[in-house]
Amino acid sequence: MPTLESELAKNNSALKSARIPVRIEIKDNRFCLRGTFPPKPGSGRTKPYRQRMLLGYPANQAGSRAAFRDAKKIGADLSGGLFQWELYLPKPEEFKTVKDWITEFESDYFNRRPRNIKSELTWKTDYHFSFKRLPPDAPLTAETVKNTILAIPEAKARTRSKVAKVLATLCRFAEIEFDAAKYKGEYTRSSVDPRSLPTDKEIVEAFRKITTIRSQVAYGLMATYGLRNHEVFLCNPETFTGDLIEVTAGKTGRRLVYPLYPEWIDLFGITAERIAKLNPVGERPAHDVLGRRIYHIFVQYKIKNFKPYDLRHSWARRAIIHFPIDARLAAAQM
Protein backbone atom coordinates (compact mmCIF):
# COMPACT_ATOMS: atom_id res chain seq x y z
CA MET A 1 0.00 0.00 0.00
CA PRO A 2 1.40 3.42 -0.92
CA THR A 3 2.20 5.78 1.92
CA LEU A 4 0.10 8.87 2.52
CA GLU A 5 3.00 11.06 1.40
CA SER A 6 3.46 9.19 -1.88
CA GLU A 7 -0.27 9.28 -2.57
CA LEU A 8 -0.35 13.03 -1.89
CA ALA A 9 2.52 13.56 -4.32
CA LYS A 10 0.82 11.37 -6.93
CA ASN A 11 -2.50 13.24 -6.61
CA ASN A 12 -0.83 16.65 -6.86
CA SER A 13 1.09 15.49 -9.93
CA ALA A 14 -2.20 14.43 -11.53
CA LEU A 15 -3.77 17.81 -10.71
CA LYS A 16 -0.81 19.61 -12.26
CA SER A 17 -0.94 17.47 -15.41
CA ALA A 18 -4.65 18.20 -15.78
CA ARG A 19 -3.97 21.93 -15.24
CA ILE A 20 -6.29 22.02 -12.25
CA PRO A 21 -5.30 25.19 -10.30
CA VAL A 22 -5.23 23.78 -6.76
CA ARG A 23 -2.88 21.58 -4.76
CA ILE A 24 -3.62 19.31 -1.81
CA GLU A 25 -1.84 19.90 1.50
CA ILE A 26 -1.99 18.53 5.03
CA LYS A 27 -2.28 20.99 7.92
CA ASP A 28 -2.81 19.95 11.54
CA ASN A 29 -3.53 16.37 10.38
CA ARG A 30 -6.34 17.57 8.12
CA PHE A 31 -6.48 17.92 4.34
CA CYS A 32 -6.81 21.33 2.72
CA LEU A 33 -6.44 22.90 -0.70
CA ARG A 34 -4.04 25.64 -1.67
CA GLY A 35 -4.68 27.89 -4.65
CA THR A 36 -5.78 31.28 -5.90
CA PHE A 37 -9.34 31.79 -4.69
CA PRO A 38 -11.76 34.74 -4.82
CA PRO A 39 -11.85 36.84 -1.63
CA LYS A 40 -13.86 35.33 1.21
CA PRO A 41 -17.00 37.25 2.24
CA GLY A 42 -16.04 39.88 4.81
CA SER A 43 -12.31 39.70 4.01
CA GLY A 44 -12.19 43.31 2.79
CA ARG A 45 -10.34 42.21 -0.35
CA THR A 46 -11.52 42.73 -3.92
CA LYS A 47 -9.24 40.53 -6.04
CA PRO A 48 -8.41 36.79 -5.99
CA TYR A 49 -5.29 35.83 -4.02
CA ARG A 50 -3.47 32.75 -2.72
CA GLN A 51 -5.42 31.10 0.09
CA ARG A 52 -5.82 27.82 1.90
CA MET A 53 -9.22 26.12 1.91
CA LEU A 54 -9.82 23.69 4.75
CA LEU A 55 -11.56 20.46 3.76
CA GLY A 56 -11.70 18.87 7.19
CA TYR A 57 -10.88 15.32 6.06
CA PRO A 58 -8.48 13.47 8.39
CA ALA A 59 -4.98 12.73 7.12
CA ASN A 60 -5.53 9.08 6.19
CA GLN A 61 -6.14 7.07 3.03
CA ALA A 62 -9.90 7.67 3.00
CA GLY A 63 -9.38 11.36 3.59
CA SER A 64 -6.85 11.46 0.76
CA ARG A 65 -9.35 10.03 -1.70
CA ALA A 66 -12.02 12.50 -0.61
CA ALA A 67 -9.59 15.44 -0.85
CA PHE A 68 -8.55 14.42 -4.38
CA ARG A 69 -12.19 14.22 -5.43
CA ASP A 70 -12.95 17.68 -4.01
CA ALA A 71 -9.79 19.14 -5.54
CA LYS A 72 -10.91 18.13 -9.03
CA LYS A 73 -14.40 19.60 -8.57
CA ILE A 74 -13.30 22.84 -6.87
CA GLY A 75 -10.46 23.29 -9.37
CA ALA A 76 -12.89 22.92 -12.25
CA ASP A 77 -15.19 25.53 -10.69
CA LEU A 78 -12.27 27.93 -10.29
CA SER A 79 -11.19 27.45 -13.89
CA GLY A 80 -14.72 28.01 -15.12
CA GLY A 81 -15.39 31.05 -12.94
CA LEU A 82 -18.13 29.19 -11.07
CA PHE A 83 -16.56 28.95 -7.62
CA GLN A 84 -18.57 30.43 -4.73
CA TRP A 85 -17.34 30.52 -1.16
CA GLU A 86 -20.90 30.44 0.10
CA LEU A 87 -21.14 26.79 -0.92
CA TYR A 88 -18.24 25.82 1.34
CA LEU A 89 -18.26 28.21 4.28
CA PRO A 90 -20.42 27.56 7.36
CA LYS A 91 -23.89 29.06 7.27
CA PRO A 92 -24.22 32.34 9.20
CA GLU A 93 -25.82 30.63 12.18
CA GLU A 94 -22.89 28.22 12.28
CA PHE A 95 -20.21 30.92 12.41
CA LYS A 96 -18.23 31.02 15.61
CA THR A 97 -18.50 34.35 17.38
CA VAL A 98 -15.59 36.46 18.55
CA LYS A 99 -16.29 35.18 22.07
CA ASP A 100 -16.08 31.56 20.87
CA TRP A 101 -12.73 32.11 19.19
CA ILE A 102 -11.30 33.93 22.21
CA THR A 103 -12.36 31.05 24.47
CA GLU A 104 -10.62 28.56 22.18
CA PHE A 105 -7.54 30.77 21.92
CA GLU A 106 -7.30 31.12 25.71
CA SER A 107 -7.55 27.36 26.17
CA ASP A 108 -4.82 26.77 23.59
CA TYR A 109 -2.66 29.54 25.10
CA PHE A 110 -2.60 27.98 28.56
CA ASN A 111 -2.28 24.43 27.21
CA ARG A 112 1.08 25.45 25.71
CA ARG A 113 2.58 27.01 28.84
CA PRO A 114 2.26 26.77 32.64
CA ARG A 115 -0.57 28.79 34.13
CA ASN A 116 1.20 30.99 36.66
CA ILE A 117 1.48 34.64 37.69
CA LYS A 118 3.67 35.51 34.70
CA SER A 119 1.47 33.87 32.04
CA GLU A 120 -1.71 35.19 33.67
CA LEU A 121 -0.24 38.71 33.62
CA THR A 122 0.71 38.42 29.94
CA TRP A 123 -2.77 37.16 29.12
CA LYS A 124 -4.39 40.05 30.98
CA THR A 125 -2.16 42.91 29.86
CA ASP A 126 -1.61 41.86 26.24
CA TYR A 127 -4.36 39.52 25.07
CA HIS A 128 -7.40 40.39 27.19
CA PHE A 129 -6.54 44.09 26.88
CA SER A 130 -6.85 43.74 23.08
CA PHE A 131 -9.60 41.11 22.79
CA LYS A 132 -12.06 43.10 24.93
CA ARG A 133 -12.19 45.72 22.16
CA LEU A 134 -13.83 43.27 19.75
CA PRO A 135 -17.64 42.88 19.62
CA PRO A 136 -18.06 39.56 21.48
CA ASP A 137 -21.19 38.30 19.73
CA ALA A 138 -20.19 39.18 16.16
CA PRO A 139 -18.59 36.69 13.74
CA LEU A 140 -14.80 36.96 13.70
CA THR A 141 -13.92 38.41 10.26
CA ALA A 142 -11.08 40.44 8.83
CA GLU A 143 -13.45 43.38 8.50
CA THR A 144 -14.40 43.21 12.18
CA VAL A 145 -10.74 43.14 13.19
CA LYS A 146 -9.84 46.01 10.87
CA ASN A 147 -12.64 48.21 12.20
CA THR A 148 -11.60 47.46 15.79
CA ILE A 149 -8.04 48.57 15.12
CA LEU A 150 -9.07 51.70 13.20
CA ALA A 151 -11.36 52.72 16.08
CA ILE A 152 -8.21 53.42 18.14
CA PRO A 153 -7.11 57.04 17.51
CA GLU A 154 -3.88 57.46 15.58
CA ALA A 155 -2.61 59.60 18.43
CA LYS A 156 -2.50 56.40 20.52
CA ALA A 157 0.06 54.81 18.22
CA ARG A 158 1.50 52.53 20.88
CA THR A 159 -1.92 51.09 21.79
CA ARG A 160 -2.94 50.65 18.16
CA SER A 161 0.29 48.84 17.34
CA LYS A 162 -0.10 46.53 20.34
CA VAL A 163 -3.75 45.70 19.61
CA ALA A 164 -3.06 45.10 15.90
CA LYS A 165 -0.31 42.64 16.73
CA VAL A 166 -2.48 40.67 19.17
CA LEU A 167 -5.56 40.59 16.91
CA ALA A 168 -3.39 39.41 14.02
CA THR A 169 -2.37 36.47 16.23
CA LEU A 170 -6.04 35.66 16.83
CA CYS A 171 -6.68 35.78 13.08
CA ARG A 172 -3.85 33.34 12.41
CA PHE A 173 -5.27 31.03 15.06
CA ALA A 174 -8.71 31.18 13.38
CA GLU A 175 -7.05 30.87 9.93
CA ILE A 176 -8.44 34.20 8.78
CA GLU A 177 -6.40 36.09 6.20
CA PHE A 178 -5.54 39.50 7.66
CA ASP A 179 -2.63 41.90 7.15
CA ALA A 180 -2.28 43.89 10.36
CA ALA A 181 0.67 45.89 9.05
CA LYS A 182 -1.66 48.09 7.00
CA TYR A 183 -3.53 49.36 10.03
CA LYS A 184 -1.25 49.17 13.06
CA GLY A 185 0.27 52.64 12.59
CA GLU A 186 3.83 53.53 13.50
CA TYR A 187 5.11 53.45 17.05
CA THR A 188 8.71 53.79 18.18
CA ARG A 189 10.28 55.47 21.17
CA SER A 190 10.69 58.49 18.90
CA SER A 191 6.89 58.62 18.60
CA VAL A 192 6.88 60.38 21.98
CA ASP A 193 6.93 64.12 21.33
CA PRO A 194 9.58 65.65 23.63
CA ARG A 195 7.46 68.78 23.81
CA SER A 196 4.68 66.81 25.52
CA LEU A 197 6.98 65.63 28.34
CA PRO A 198 7.27 67.48 31.65
CA THR A 199 10.23 69.80 32.16
CA ASP A 200 12.69 69.08 34.95
CA LYS A 201 11.15 71.95 36.88
CA GLU A 202 7.65 70.46 36.54
CA ILE A 203 8.93 67.07 37.72
CA VAL A 204 10.39 68.64 40.87
CA GLU A 205 7.27 70.74 41.47
CA ALA A 206 5.09 67.63 41.27
CA PHE A 207 7.37 65.87 43.75
CA ARG A 208 6.81 68.66 46.28
CA LYS A 209 3.09 67.79 46.32
CA ILE A 210 3.85 64.35 47.77
CA THR A 211 3.90 64.26 51.57
CA THR A 212 4.72 60.64 52.51
CA ILE A 213 8.32 59.42 52.39
CA ARG A 214 7.41 56.07 50.81
CA SER A 215 5.59 57.77 47.91
CA GLN A 216 8.33 60.37 47.56
CA VAL A 217 10.98 57.65 47.13
CA ALA A 218 8.84 55.68 44.65
CA TYR A 219 8.26 58.81 42.56
CA GLY A 220 11.92 59.78 42.91
CA LEU A 221 13.16 56.41 41.65
CA MET A 222 11.05 56.67 38.51
CA ALA A 223 12.15 60.24 37.86
CA THR A 224 15.84 59.75 38.61
CA TYR A 225 16.39 56.34 36.99
CA GLY A 226 13.63 56.16 34.36
CA LEU A 227 12.24 52.93 35.78
CA ARG A 228 9.00 51.26 34.78
CA ASN A 229 6.20 51.56 37.35
CA HIS A 230 6.63 48.08 38.81
CA GLU A 231 10.45 48.21 38.77
CA VAL A 232 10.39 50.86 41.49
CA PHE A 233 9.53 48.04 43.90
CA LEU A 234 12.14 45.61 42.53
CA CYS A 235 15.42 47.43 43.25
CA ASN A 236 18.29 45.99 45.28
CA PRO A 237 19.00 48.14 48.35
CA GLU A 238 22.10 46.10 49.24
CA THR A 239 24.01 47.19 46.13
CA PHE A 240 22.88 50.81 46.24
CA THR A 241 25.77 53.11 47.14
CA GLY A 242 24.22 56.46 46.29
CA ASP A 243 24.80 56.29 42.55
CA LEU A 244 23.99 53.33 40.27
CA ILE A 245 20.89 51.35 41.11
CA GLU A 246 20.34 47.66 40.40
CA VAL A 247 16.93 46.57 39.08
CA THR A 248 16.57 42.91 40.07
CA ALA A 249 13.66 41.98 37.80
CA GLY A 250 11.29 43.48 35.25
CA LYS A 251 10.43 43.43 31.58
CA THR A 252 14.08 43.77 30.50
CA GLY A 253 15.53 41.78 33.38
CA ARG A 254 18.32 42.58 35.81
CA ARG A 255 20.35 45.70 34.96
CA LEU A 256 22.20 48.71 36.36
CA VAL A 257 20.92 52.23 35.72
CA TYR A 258 22.62 55.64 36.03
CA PRO A 259 20.90 58.47 37.91
CA LEU A 260 19.96 61.43 35.73
CA TYR A 261 20.34 63.78 37.52
CA PRO A 262 22.65 62.48 40.29
CA GLU A 263 21.68 65.39 42.54
CA TRP A 264 18.07 64.18 42.50
CA ILE A 265 19.10 61.26 44.73
CA ASP A 266 19.44 63.66 47.66
CA LEU A 267 16.58 65.91 46.54
CA PHE A 268 14.12 63.00 46.44
CA GLY A 269 15.51 61.36 49.60
CA ILE A 270 16.57 58.10 47.96
CA THR A 271 18.51 55.87 50.38
CA ALA A 272 19.18 52.13 50.62
CA GLU A 273 17.03 51.92 53.75
CA ARG A 274 14.07 53.57 52.04
CA ILE A 275 14.47 51.44 48.90
CA ALA A 276 14.33 48.32 51.10
CA LYS A 277 11.01 49.43 52.57
CA LEU A 278 9.49 49.62 49.08
CA ASN A 279 10.25 45.99 48.25
CA PRO A 280 7.27 43.63 48.64
CA VAL A 281 7.46 41.26 51.60
CA GLY A 282 6.64 37.57 51.09
CA GLU A 283 5.14 36.46 47.78
CA ARG A 284 5.85 39.02 45.04
CA PRO A 285 2.66 40.53 43.54
CA ALA A 286 2.16 40.61 39.76
CA HIS A 287 3.82 43.49 37.92
CA ASP A 288 0.52 45.20 37.12
CA VAL A 289 -0.42 45.17 40.82
CA LEU A 290 2.87 46.81 41.71
CA GLY A 291 2.56 49.28 38.84
CA ARG A 292 -0.86 50.48 39.95
CA ARG A 293 0.68 51.72 43.18
CA ILE A 294 2.43 54.45 41.20
CA TYR A 295 -0.82 55.49 39.53
CA HIS A 296 -2.42 55.74 42.98
CA ILE A 297 0.32 58.18 44.02
CA PHE A 298 -0.47 60.39 41.02
CA VAL A 299 -4.19 60.29 41.79
CA GLN A 300 -3.78 60.81 45.53
CA TYR A 301 -1.57 63.88 45.12
CA LYS A 302 -3.41 65.24 42.08
CA ILE A 303 -0.47 65.13 39.67
CA LYS A 304 -2.36 65.76 36.45
CA ASN A 305 0.05 67.52 34.09
CA PHE A 306 1.76 64.29 33.03
CA LYS A 307 1.57 60.52 33.47
CA PRO A 308 3.88 58.20 35.42
CA TYR A 309 5.44 56.76 32.26
CA ASP A 310 6.39 60.28 31.15
CA LEU A 311 9.03 60.19 33.89
CA ARG A 312 10.65 57.26 32.08
CA HIS A 313 10.54 59.02 28.71
CA SER A 314 11.98 62.13 30.33
CA TRP A 315 14.94 60.11 31.63
CA ALA A 316 15.58 58.92 28.05
CA ARG A 317 15.42 62.52 26.81
CA ARG A 318 17.95 63.66 29.40
CA ALA A 319 20.23 60.69 28.64
CA ILE A 320 20.45 61.35 24.92
CA ILE A 321 20.02 65.11 24.66
CA HIS A 322 21.32 66.71 27.82
CA PHE A 323 24.24 64.57 28.94
CA PRO A 324 24.60 62.99 26.27
CA ILE A 325 24.91 59.23 26.76
CA ASP A 326 25.42 56.94 23.76
CA ALA A 327 21.98 55.84 22.56
CA ARG A 328 22.93 52.15 22.78
CA LEU A 329 24.10 52.52 26.37
CA ALA A 330 20.94 54.41 27.30
CA ALA A 331 18.77 51.73 25.65
CA ALA A 332 20.59 48.99 27.57
CA GLN A 333 19.62 50.68 30.84
CA MET A 334 15.95 50.85 29.87
Notes on the structure:
The protein is mainly alpha-helical and 334 residues long. The protein is built from 13 helices and 5 strands. The longest helix is centred in the N-terminal third of the chain and has 19 residues, at 61-79. The protein is elongated and about 80 Å long. The model is unreliable at 187-192 (pLDDT under 50).
Salient structural properties:
13 helices, three-stranded antiparallel sheet, 46% helix, mainly alpha
Q: Short description, anyone?
A:
The chain is 46% helix and 9% strand. It is built from 13 helices and five strands. It has helices at 4-17, 61-79, 98-111, 117-131, 142-150, 157-173, 200-207, 213-225, 264-267, 272-278, 287-300, 308-322, 327-332; strands at 22-27, 30-37, 49-58, 245-247, 255-257.
SSE topology:
Layout: H1 4-17, E1 22-27, E2 30-37, E3 49-58, H2 61-79, H3 98-111, H4 117-131, H5 142-150, H6 157-173, H7 200-207, H8 213-225, E4 245-247, E5 255-257, H9 264-267, H10 272-278, H11 287-300, H12 308-322, H13 327-332
Antiparallel strand pairs: 1-2, 2-3, 4-5
Helix pairs in contact: 1-2, 4-6, 5-6, 8-10, 8-12
Poorly predicted tracts of residues: 187-192
User: Based on DSSP secondary structure assignment, what is the total number of beta strands?
Assistant: 5
Helix coverage percent of residues?
Answer: 40-55%
Alpha-carbon distance between the two ends: 61 Å
Q: Oligomer, anyone?
A: single chain
Mean pLDDT: 83
Strand content: 5-15%
Molecular shape = elongated
- The value of Rg in angstroms is 28 Å
